[in-house]
Amino acid sequence: MRRLPVRLRRAGLPYLLLLPALVLELLVHLVPMVIGIVMSFKELTQFHIGNWGLAPWKALGNYRVTVDLDAPVGAALLHSFWITCAFSVLSVGLCWLLGTTAAIMLQENFRGRGLLRAVFLTPYALPVYAAVITWAFMFQKDNGLVNHVLHDQLGLTDGRPFWLLGGNSFLALLVVAVWKTWPFAFLVVMAGLQNIPKDLYEAAALDGAGMIRQIRRITLPSLRPVNQVLVLVLFLWTFNDFNTPYVLFGKAAPEAADLLSIHIYQSSFVTWNFGTGSAMSVLLLLFLLVVTAGYLLATSRGRRYADG
Fold first, then answer.
1. How many CB atoms lie within 10 A of CB 189?
2. Residues 106, 190 contacting (CB under 8 angstroms)
3. DSSP three-state, residue 57
4. SS3 sequence, 218-234?
5. Which of 192, 196, 194 has the alpha carbon at shortest distance from 227?
6. Rounded CA gap, 139 and 37, in Å?
7. What is the C-alpha to C-alpha distance for residues 285 and 36, in angstroms, rounded to an integer?
8. Residue 168 region by backbone torsions, left for phi larger than 0, else alpha for psi between -120 and 50, else beta
């Protein structure tokens, strides 16, 4: 009987150590999420924001408006969804490609390798707001560095195009997002390369395998577990990215760069329709949960198939 309290203390110690993290998770994430879900079922506008608990109950009305693709709200949301999907696929693909290429190129020892690694990580170390504001100045039409180089120095454009307005805004957003995110992919892949035994490359070189074949047969298969996590994290970050479009374009993003994050912000804090904005947020959460679950299921099956 005397041993029971000691065993209980030992068994309860891990839960006691996790308690502060669980409390913070509850306060920072779960409670606001539950409040947001409740708000999505209410007719919450600027007339009820002072006491949102008394806002009229709308049930699924906000969701019906949101998913009605024939109505302006639903059509605009669908357009924003496709823009976000295209942006996420291109951004994640380019970040992974640049990060993996740079990490592989900097695996060999040479003079200045440490300096290059530090330079490559600079965009990731810079504060997001400072970096994006700098890019916003560089994309200015009349006195921006981008137009100065492309038009004045290289003569690649007929005139000085708008980068923060119109169709070019998507390209500008993509450039900024890739520039500030690809060093993370570089850092993760570079860490994963450290776990690949050098003996595999030496044996492949003795068999006559060149660099490209070594990358295809050794490097990429060995990096599969790392890449599976990296791609998922990059996708979630990119699909939910709010800071980049908001700092680059302001409250009203151009139609070509109207990501879901900024679209939901406009629906909530610009038009003061918090009920509809909350419904959009809940739908976005459900979509990301389904995509994440499907991705994890597909990658786990692929891993079992490769191991078997």
1. 21
2. yes
3. strand
4. HHHHHCHHHHHHHHHHH
5. 192
6. 38
7. 11
8. alpha
**Residue whose token pair is 């520039």:** 179
- 88-133 pLDDT, tens digit each: 999 999 999 999 999 988 888 778 888 888 888 888 888 888 899 9
- What pairs with residue 244 in β-bridges? none
Q: Indicate the DSSP class of residue 207.
A: T
Q: What's the pTM?
A: 0.85
Separation CA 42–CA 257 (nearest Å): 29
Of the CA atoms within 13 Å of residue 232, those in its CB half-sphere come to 18
Residue with tokens 């006559």: 208
Helices (H), ranges, the chain: 3-25, 31-39, 61-67, 72-105, 113-120, 122-125, 128-138, 145-147, 168-193, 198-206, 211-214, 220-222, 224-239, 243-249, 260-265, 274-307
